[in-house]
């Protein structure tokens, strides 16, 4: 599956896809060990898809954390500016 297609999916869809890809990887590993699978490169693609999904999850969580950090910094800055204005007003 292409990265562009994965980026368009929601977190819930990605989670479901991740579960199915992990199950598929497990099944392919069993087939390889039993020598039932002719195309052993198929497992490589499944592993890459799993890695892409996990990378997207990490990127999204980092983005959320950075946004939360910026909001916190903004709130702290506003509180500090209000304290400074309050001290100036008292003089």
Integer tally of domains: 1
- Sheet/helix structural class: mainly alpha
Shape: rod-shaped
Give the C-alpha Rg: 24 Å
Largest sheet: none
Can you tell me about this structure?
This protein is mainly α and 91 residues long. It has one domain (3-90). The chain has helices spanning 3-7, 11-33, 42-90. It starts with a helix and ends with a helix.
Question: How would the blueprint of this fold be written?
Answer:
Elements lengths: L2 H5 L3 H23 L8 H49 L1
Helix pairs in contact: 2-3
What's a quick, concise take on this entry?
With 91 residues, the protein is an all-alpha fold. It has helices at 3-7, 11-33, 42-90.
Give a quick set of tags describing it:
91 residues, mainly alpha
């Amino acid at each position: 599956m292409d990265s562009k297609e994965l980026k368009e999916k929601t977190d819930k869809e990605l989670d479901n896809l991740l579960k199915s890809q992990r199950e598929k990887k497990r099944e392919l590993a069993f087939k390889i060990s039993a020598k039932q699978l002719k195309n052993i490169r198929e497992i490589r693609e499944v592993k890459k898809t799993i890695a892409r999904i996990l990378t997207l999850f990490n990127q999204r969580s980092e983005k959320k954390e950075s946004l939360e950090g910026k909001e916190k910094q903004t709130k702290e800055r506003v509180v500090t500016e209000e304290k400074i204005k309050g001290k100036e007003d008292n003089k």
